[in-house]
Backbone:
């Protein structure tokens, strides 16, 4: 049985992105059907990000310098408690039921360790419509080639041409993804030797080796500048 109002921890690593960050936080605070446990981890920003977080009473960790994506997110994992743990980049905007849709799928099967939304490319200042066939896909899940290179499935395609469906995927895109905390604990979180990029690929590979599976949840929509 799923709780009537599930609790979701959301970690937002941020570095010198105050304008994007404020829109991201607003979209998180507008989520419906979930109890939000928000934690922004600021990587030594010098653009007024910390002042914004203080002013808006956003729970956050302020680091003295940029420790990288993996280290920041791991700090956020350790500073929250919810069993569902989401990480989103600061340049994302979430549709209102994004977290709820992902949570329901994540806890529908004991084998599922992580899920991701339908991630669409965000063009600043342009009207956002999840049903727009002209919207450009950023990721419908992470794929791995035979020689070990990762790619975001569907990237650059119009969603009206490509289409989308709920399905198993190799792994999830680090820009927006939700995990079971017990999987993260088993894996030890992200490998901090990856300062930025490929930490999500590494985690996906290690999780798959341990028997976990991943799914894309197209009903959940997140927009990402990238």
Residues:
């Amino acid at each position: 049985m799923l709780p009537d109002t599930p609790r979701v921890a959301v970690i937002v690593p941020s570095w010198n992105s105050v304008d994007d960050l404020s829109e991201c936080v607003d979209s998180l605070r507008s989520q419906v059907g979930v109890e939000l446990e928000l934690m922004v981890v600021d990587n030594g920003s010098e653009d007024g990000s910390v002042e914004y977080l203080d002013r808006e009473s956003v729970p956050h960790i302020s680091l003295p310098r940029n420790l990288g994506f993996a280290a920041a997110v791991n700090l956020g994992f350790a500073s929250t408690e919810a069993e569902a743990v989401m990480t989103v980049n600061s340049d994302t905007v979430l549709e209102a039921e994004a977290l709820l849709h992902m949570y329901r799928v994540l806890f529908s099967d004991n084998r599922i360790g992580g899920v991701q939304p339908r991630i669409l490319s965000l063009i600043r200042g342009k009207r956002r419509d999840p049903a727009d066939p002209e919207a450009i896909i950023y990721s419908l899940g992470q794929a791995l080639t035979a020689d070990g290179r990762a790619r975001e499935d569907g990237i650059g395609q119009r969603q009206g041409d490509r289409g989308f469906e709920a399905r198993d995927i190799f792994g999830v895109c680090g820009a927006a993804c939700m995990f079971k905390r017990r999987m993260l604990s088993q894996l030890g979180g992200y490998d901090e030797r990856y300062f930025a990029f490929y930490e999500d690929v590494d985690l996906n590979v290690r999780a798959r080796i341990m028997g976990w599976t991943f799914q894309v949840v197209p009903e959940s929509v997140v927009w990402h500048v990238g």
